[in-house]
Automatic annotation (TrEMBL):
The keyword rRNA-binding does not apply. This is NarX-like N-terminal domain-containing protein. The keyword Nucleus does not apply. Keywords: Coiled coil, Membrane, Transmembrane, Transmembrane helix. Pfam families: PilJ (PF13675). InterPro entries: NarX-like_N (IPR029095), NarX-like_N_sf (IPR042295). GO terms for cellular component: membrane. Its main location: membrane. Residues 298-332 form a coiled coil. Residues 30-125 form the NarX-like N-terminal domain. It is found in: Membrane. It is a multi-pass membrane protein.
Length: 333
């Protein structure tokens, strides 16, 4: 299996860190926004309780002074209805969603039943006061008084439901933040070990190359055995290819030198045999001439082999100088 590249590992760690940090930031912003929204909702629900008490108080006051001015009463009723509808159906202007749970929606149904009866008696009370029907108005007052406690209790229950919902949502987000923070710590530890592994692989590669440079005999050079990231393995493969080429050139040059020496010895033996034949056949002019020509060819071949041997020896000397140059450069650095 091919090792991952160093850049890939670092990019992967960076992307994971970025995602987790962004998730934490977004969650924090969302939590703050929801906290403001929940606070507004709970405030409106609590205000509904206060408005119901204001309506009842205003009715009692209006009845006792026998007033027909219902401005404050109507203002409280309108504000109660507006707040109740905003909580129940949502309000885009206030950025309030409709009932978030089934229990809250059911509670609104209970409040609606009580409120419709409550509002009916409030409207009848105003009409009876305008018509001076004080006895009927007193009956409406009693119904409002009896209904007000029930309405207050149900509105209190609504406030508690919204408070519990907000706390549960906040607790869930807090757990998510803890989980994200723990994931960040785990990712940090994982990234530390990954970077440590990269560092160790790099040190192993540098140590192997130093040992390669410190080698005194070029013929004993061995390929690097590195198991690391792709970039380091690619460099190791390049160095190994260079080492293999040097070793191959050294081997071929040594073999060629040995073969040329053997050929030179054989040619010398052949030359000696020709000399003996020439001594025995020196009276024959034509044979002597042909033998002289053969001798010249042998001598020429011998010279060519000697030149080849000299060139191969020069190649070997250049490789030796290359080794010495590497050593001197290492010492100077």
């Amino acid at each position: 299996m091919k090792s991952q590249r160093i850049s890939t590992k670092i990019k992967t760690l960076g992307v994971l860190f970025f995602i987790l940090v962004v998730a934490l930031i977004v969650t924090t912003i969302y939590l703050n926004q929801k906290s403001k929204q929940d606070a507004l909702i709970i405030n409106i629900a609590g205000k509904e309780r206060m408005l119901s008490q204001r309506i009842a108080k205003n009715i009692f006051y209006t009845y006792h002074i026998k007033s027909t001015q219902f401005t404050e009463l109507e203002s409280a009723v309108d504000e109660f209805i507006y707040g109740l509808n905003s909580l129940k159906n949502g309000n885009q202007l206030l950025e309030i969603d409709s009932a978030p749970t089934q229990a809250i929606a059911k509670q609104f149904y209970i409040i609606d039943v009580i409120w419709n009866n409550y509002l009916k008696n409030v409207n009848e009370f105003k009409q009876n006061m305008l018509q001076k029907s004080f006895q009927k108005a007193e009956h409406n007052l009693e119904v409002v008084y009896n209904t007000n406690n029930a309405l207050l209790q149900e509105v209190d229950t609504l406030v508690s439901l919204y408070t519990n919902h907000a706390q549960g949502k906040t607790q869930y987000i807090i757990y998510f933040q803890y989980g994200a923070a723990l994931a960040l710590i785990i990712l940090f530890i994982y990234g530390f070990f990954k970077l440590r592994t990269i560092e160790l692989n790099a040190k192993n590669f540098i140590q192997s190359t130093k040992q390669l440079i410190d080698s005194d005999d070029v013929e004993e050079l061995k390929p690097l055995q590195i198991n690391a990231e792709s970039e380091i393995e690619e460099v190791s493969d390049t160095i190994n290819c260079f080492i293999n080429k040097i070793s191959s050139a050294m081997n071929h040059s040594a073999q060629a030198i040995e073969q040329s020496k053997q050929a030179s010895l054989q040619l010398e033996e052949i030359t000696d045999e020709f000399d003996e034949i020439l001594d025995s056949l020196k009276d024959s002019a034509s044979i002597s001439k042909q033998l002289n020509m053969s001798e010249d060819m042998v001598i020429e071949s011998t010279e060519e082999l000697m030149n080849s041997t000299r060139r191969l020896e020069e190649l070997k000397a250049q490789l030796d100088r290359l080794k010495e140059g590497c050593k001197e450069e290492r010492k100077s650095s």
